[in-house]
Every structure is written in structure tokens, then in C-alpha cells.
Design goal:
single chain; 3-stranded antiparallel sheet; UDP-N-acetylmuramoyl-L-alanine:D-glutamate ligase; alpha/beta; 6-stranded mixed sheet
Length: 266
Amino acid sequence: MSTPVALTIAGSDSSGGAGIQADLKTFAALSVYGASVLTALTAQNTTGVTGVHLVPPDFVAAQIDAVFADLTVGAVKIGMVAQAPIAGAISDSLGRWRPAHIVLDPVMVATSGARLLPEDAIEALRSRLIPQASLITPNLPEAAALLGEPIADTDEAIAAQGRRLLALGCPAVLIKGGHGQGAESTDYLITSGTSIALSAPRVATRNTHGTGCSLSSAVAAGLAKGEELETAVRNAKAFISGAIAAADRFTVGHGHGPVHHLHRFY
């Protein structure tokens, strides 16, 4: 039996809680071999991002080609694309290799509030990467930004935004409700025929750094193992809920600390 492999295409987080580092920890925690393609280096910690160094688009493409030429990639997770030319290089490369599953997390703003994506790169997400994705995983502000609309604040408005995101060309959308209010955090999995609400108790913690990265990479890990989309999403939701619930076992940094990716092991 071959080893399941997932590839993350994302930025590096020097503090280890988000981005490539969070993705690789998630893959390992879920028994999937992780490969990585760097789009950017960030100087950041739990309190904010102080610098971004972009990887040239042709070198992003070279990394993707090197991985696919040798490894049997079961699923791809895309995180921070940083700029429009990098998004184009990713789109072109994945168009050549045609992986079975692509999970796109449209990373626009860090947990600390730092903006990570300019307007032309958002348009590249809409026109190039979203139509190639199997699933996109925006949070409530990101879903609104992709559509140029106000943030949805009711179940009906969230479902309606999900349907409008489907019209951009992807077959499934997972709108994450972590930015909402109330006793439960509810995510919405929306396809052309279904809308499924997935709820978990909202955990009172400041340690939420990397939650979005980790959820999307957990979905990719499930798809790489052969799970159906809904199963992969449900399992990813359970994984990230456990990682958030265990986050206060850590005392890391002075801002939004990391979730506990390896909570099942220690």
C-alpha cells in the first residue's frame, strides 16, 4: 500500500504556528507524508507580521515540478499565494500536473490582522485558482472579500454567499464560522446540491494562530488518504476542534498563540 502524500503550497511562518509549518504538523498528525512548496518567507510571531520576502514565481513553479516529478501527490493544499504572478505560476503548474484534489485556503489576513494579499492577487484567486480548486475554505471576512460584499451575519446570508462563490467555478465551499459569535462555531459545507452545517463548541482561548491553515490542510490530508469530501471535512473539523481545545497547554508567545497540532500525542 502506497504512503499517502499531501503537498502544501504556502508561506513560511517563522514562529511555527501557521503556514507551511502548521500544514506539515497537521499532515504528520493525520498520518500523511507532507511535501512543501514555499511562496513567501514571513518574519512573524504571535503578535504580528513584520516582513514578507517573496519567492520568485519561476522558483515556485520549479518547486512544484520537482515534487510532482517524483512523488505521487494525493492532494494539494494552497495557502498564502502572496501576489498575482505567484498565483499564476501555481495555476499554470497545477494545470500541467492535474492533481485529483486541490484545497484552496484564500489567505488574505493573518490572525493578528495583518493584510497578506493585495487586490490584484485576490482577482487572480478568483479567475485562476478558484476554478481549479476542489474545495475553497474562506472564513466569513474572506468570503465577503472574494465577493465584494458585506460580511454575512445569518445562516441564510452565509449559505447565499456560498452559492455565489460556487459560481466562480469551484464545486464545493467550506465557509468557516470561527469569526462568528455564540456558544458554537459553525462551518458551512456548500455544494450545488447540499448545504451542511458543522458545529462544535466555541473554545474560549487566545491561542488560535494557524487555525485556518490547519483546517484546510487537515481536509487535504483526508482527501490524500482517499476519504470522500464530506468525511474529510468532518474529520478535519474534529481535528482542529481538538487542537484548539488543547491549545492552552502551550505557553508560547505574547499574542495569539498556536493551536496544538499534536494534541493526540502529548
